[in-house]
């Protein structure tokens, strides 16, 4: 979970970037991330545009993503369907 620039060091290669938002200062994280989940944003937002450039899936506008998803959770990010699913027995898609 990356909540602010002070947390940037916590994102490892191949992890999913889960954040409340992104802006241009967050762009270097996209080269590490396998996908993006953000509480804010839409098709023309910073996260959407940069994720497309890097060819990684992104689902934006996921309210409470930083509350529902915890560090270490395994999730599937389906950018085409706009769905984030936790990988566990009782998983329901996050909207």
From TrEMBL:
This is PEP-utilizing enzyme, mobile domain protein. Residues 13-82 form the PEP-utilising enzyme mobile domain. PANTHER family: PHOSPHOENOLPYRUVATE SYNTHASE-RELATED, PPDK_N DOMAIN-CONTAINING PROTEIN. It comes from Actinomyces johnsonii F0542. GO terms for molecular function: transferase activity, transferring phosphorus-containing groups. It comes from the Bacteria. Pfam families: PEP-utilizers.
